[in-house]
Amino acid sequence: MMDKLFKSSNTKHHNNTIRTIYAGDVDRNRAEYPNNRISNTKYTALSFLPKNMIEQFGRAMNIYFLFIGVLQLFPALTPVNPLSTWGGLLFIFSISAIKEAFDDIGRRRRDKLANERVYTVVRDGKKQSILSESILVGDIVYLENNSEIPCDLLLLSTSETENNSCFIQTANLDGETDLKTRYSIRETSKLSEQRLMSFNGVLECPSPNPDIYRFDSRLSMKVNSKVNTFSHSDWLTVDASNLVLQATHLRNTDYIYGLAVYTGNQTKLGMNKMSPPTKWTKLDRAVNQITVFVFVFQLIMVLIFGLIGDLFTYQLDKKAWYLPPNAGMFKSIVVVPLRFLLLNSMMIPISLKVTMDVTKYTYALFINWDLKMYHRASDSPATANSTALSEDLGQLEYIFTDKTGTLTENIMLFSKCSINGVVYGANSNSGNSNNDDGDDDGNIQLLSPSSSQTALEDPNLLGKLASKSIYEIEFFKALALCHTVVIGQPHHNEQQQEQGEDQVMNNYKASSPDEEALVKASFKLGIKFINRTPSQLTINVMNDSVDSTYQLLHTFDFTSDRKRMSVVLLDERNGVIKIITKGADEVVFQKLDQSNSNNHLLDTYRSQIDEFAHYGLRTLCVAQKEINEQDYRYWFEKYYQKANTAIEGRSSLLSEAYDMLERNLELLGITAIEDKLQESVPQTIHCMREANIKVWMLTGDKYSTAIQIAHSCNLIDDNGKLYTVGKALHDQSNAGAHPAISQKDVEMSIEALYKEIRSLPKNTQEISSIIIEGHVLALALIYAADNLLAVSQLVGSLICCRVTPNQKAQVVKMIKDTGRITAAIGDGGNDVSMIQEANIGIGISGREGLQASRAADYSIARFKYLQELVLVHGRYSYVRSSFVANYSFYKSLFMCFIQILYQLFCGYAGTSFFNTFSLTSYNILFTGLPVIGFVLDKDLPEAIIRRNPILYTYTQEGRLFNRRVFAGWFIRALFQAIFVFCITVGAFAYGSGSTIDYNSVSMISFTGIIFIQSLTLYFESHTITWINHILLWGTIPLYFFCVFFLNSVPTMDTYSVMTHLFDSSSFYFSLVLMVFACIIPVLIIQYIFVLYKPTISEIIHQVRLTSFSGSDSNSNNSNNNGQKRYSSISDEETSAFSNMIDDKDLLNSSGSNNHSNRNSIENPLLGNINERSRIIQYKYKKHQNGNKDGSDNSNSNKNQKNQSDSSSFQKNTKFNTRKVYYEKMVHLVVGPREEEEYENKKLYDQEYNDIDNDNNNKSNSRQAPNSKSNENLPLLSK
């Protein structure tokens, strides 16, 4: 609904027109702008039926069945009753229409509640109570505390006269529960209530647009003046901080007055209400391809049998002179083929879409209900926002993840800082803690982030502050002043006025956790930020008796393009104007006064920044300078004032003005903030990689920080190689690529990387990584996108650092366009673009609000829940849906093949073998309902899937629904149809010689089909619950109830048919014979495949059956290392069984002694394996797209810019769909059933017993990737 909610600051206006609003003159505004009535409904009473029908017939399958249904209305064409198609079509349409109607009725009710709320507005100089829908643009709206904002309002005045502010809660808009501060315009806030009642100024603002972060407008308080003749001095600047948005709530403020700017569906929220992008799963596309194949096969059969029918009719007309003459050429050429088309129309199952939709919806419910993904500390369950994409969770090949708040906690700790070249929070032996002048060699020896001492506890820093050292005092004063933190106060009461200073710090509200950490750090060290108004900041320095007050002249906000923020302040004590800037080092260093800076000290700072980043710390540079008052006035009047009152292009003009003031700065120091990893992140990433899923990290952090975090969370293997795009192959320095790298250098670097990595062994390629910075990525995506794609697919992981939100989406799209299934996971608004670009979007409901969660297809609270979401729910969803799709085609083909066989006995006339009841009820009632129970099926227990991520590759490669698998079901349907038809006809037509009518023969076959379908579902199921039993076997009594009812209706064709059949022994004999003939051969074939070519799931079932069944005496059959032999399989049988398996799914040893040491298994998920567990060595052929040498490839060059000097490199980077296999040995762990149940229970109880363990145990979150310790692993340890 809100896919455009989080646009960047360069978002263009909705159009180029400007809206002019006359305050208090509603009659003048009424003609141009709508009232405040909101409508989110899709339909009206008159438009519902036609509009819904148009939507329904927008699907190709529905158009097909409508075409068939229309043809069946012509008696000369149809071989069956039109009810056989129209009944199912109407049922499906009715279900969809009823669902849409209920959804729309719910929307209408919510709209009615919103439109009928009562609000107070000022009209004709007095307050009036009106309904929300009657509010007009230009109305002055009066709101009291806790009111919901009815429309977008320009804030004119508030009850907080001291700071002209109010607090709003934007949970309905962006999911954030923290209070936001909005400010009234300084000039209008001074107006008395009487003046506000008659306020009639003029506002110029952009036309309605969806950008909630921009409101570049201007207000004039002059009355009845010609607007466009006002000078710049007449205009008052208005921006987003003065706008309160519809659907937010007023908090902790007695009242406000606001001017209605945007109303109804033209509000910011209304402009963002858009349908989410349509996504199709890989399985859906495969089903569509099979549907096309079936349709083509159907047309071929129509042409063949139509031609045979025409020839047969022609020959019959010559011999059977006594029959009425043929109707003519039209009937011969058109009618007979159309009859065959209608006869076989159910080859495409009409129930397929409904069945798939029901199963997909059920998968979403399972995700929502899964307590193993419930985070109790934040009361956040897993949520499936999309009900159509669960199968893609089972076929993921790439996961793109953000870092901050996704892999980390987003809880910032002020860890270290450097002031005047001196590092605080470092080791005592650093050799520089007493270096007041900063004259060191730059070789800083820091504590690791796990050190218990931070800069806040460093005695050297505390001593410097106590002695009021100028460098340290100025540094922390800058931190206390350069920010956008507000002090959130509860509603006024007596207790509030008695708050201490610590309570003030606890009430800090910041838009960024980094800012909050910095301001709190300065507070704890004695430089305390204690008050803020729209125009003033107040701090206390080291408990001075007099607070320091600064006029806040300007705030230059942080953006992803600027990568810095600044404040311009006037010190009221001495009248000095200064600017304070903090931001990324590569930006701030460019703004320094190079002529006055100590170059040696700058080199020291750079070295310190690299070492901070080496430990995964987030760094910021802090700088300032004093500004001459005359220079400031000149800048303000010539540049800033003009830019700040512009409506169009305000952002770019302001950015230019900011740059003019942010020059020749003096560097004060560097901050280093620690952001801890979430628990189990390294194990989760290891698990994903074991499942053959590549994990890429896309972050805005600097080069060194990204590398350190990647090491900590297992993205970079310690035994692998790390390559940097834009650097020499063997350059291992901490610095990234040169900032001014050229296009040619980028292309040559990628070419060199490709040749180097391609020469490595395949197992080395898998554990190698590539890192690329944002400025290099920008060039690579333009000039060498295909080559970058080829290189990236060779390695195990890729890290993109210093990237923008748009670049994140571009990287995701680059991989997605190759046909790979991708998932993107993030927690903030800057991740929304990549989340929506990926096949699967996953949002983390974290400290940055719910922007990502609301835009995503799935929402989880912690990164570790990916294991459950992907490996368990994703795998199960794909397995279940694959069977449902295969079975739906199979059961329809079964019936159609019998119809085709019957044509051999009816002169190819296109006559239906089955009656109307059979055709109408078969697809939906007797086979459609039982197959839905397959959503409960589990081919393997959850515990085994968690222990063995390699099992995910079975679904990832799409082995359960493809042309080969469909061919098997196709052949099964054909041969079973032959058996059923031949047995039926043979038993009665050529058996006893007794006569039997057409309806009786039809019902014999149909009765056998009902039994065959129930047994097929039973034998194909892995899990049978009481629900499955009801659905499977309940269809049989339901069938007999229906046929006996029809048997007693004299007007039906089936009248007394079943009565005669029950009196015939041939009926029972043929029924048993056809069931055995159809089921037993299938079971025999499946058994042979299990013996000679088992799947990985069947291998595990064999192990579970042979190892954990029988008496406890089996426990004696164990070797010295605790591994037990399979009691019922000898060594010779084991060897033979292994050799029978195809090398694509090869079982090398099944419980033999050749793997004697469990501790050698390099898989941290195995944990403390119970002594009764079994370990299987499993060798499989891992495939990937590439050339014969095993190298990955990319798409052919799509852009002429992607030319490379090396022709051989371009030749090797052409995308080839050929599958290249290479063998890989893995180990499977299979445990007894009671152990599986224990592990499942432990996962359910985990969040209740261990809430946020990482907050209490830092070492857990920083565990080394290759640590042998398994005591913190949640899955397997006891």
Automatic annotation (TrEMBL):
Cofactor(s) required, per the database record: Mg(2+)
Keywords from the UniProt entry: ATP-binding, Magnesium, Membrane, Metal-binding, Nucleotide-binding, Translocase, Transmembrane, Transmembrane helix
Keyword Membrane assigned: yes
Pfam families, per database record: Cation_ATPase (PF13246), E1-E2_ATPase (PF00122), PhoLip_ATPase_C (PF16212), PhoLip_ATPase_N (PF16209)
Main location: membrane
GO terms classed as biological process: phospholipid translocation
Amino acid composition bias (Polar residues), ranges on this chain: 445-455, 1258-1272
Protein name stated in the entry: Phospholipid-transporting ATPase
Residue numbers binding ATP: 402-404, 515, 558, 582, 618, 699-701, 802, 808, 830-831
TM spans (from-to): 60-77, 83-102, 290-309, 329-352, 889-910, 916-936, 969-989, 1001-1019, 1026-1047, 1067-1092
Originating species: Polysphondylium violaceum
Recorded family membership: Belongs to the cation transport ATPase (P-type) (TC 3.A.3) family. Type IV subfamily.
Domain of life: Eukaryota
